[in-house]
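re: that chain from earlier
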Amino acid sequence: MPKYSIKSKLGDLMKNPKARAVLEKHLPGISKDPQLKKGFKMNLKFIAKIPGSGFPKEKLPAIDADPSSNN
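^ sequence. v structure.
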């Protein structure tokens, strides 16, 4: 089983139910965002640097530290 982190591609995270749940926990509604698929090939760290992405970089440490996606 792969270890997921903020360096993982968004598409890989969204394919994994546990990782997707972690993203929903920290970023409510992310899985329903119509723009979501545009970021599937990018990692979370990169997406958070894009102005107007709606992805607050302040959330990255909590997402990365959440053990739920790797259990």
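The two ends are 9 Å apart (CA to CA).
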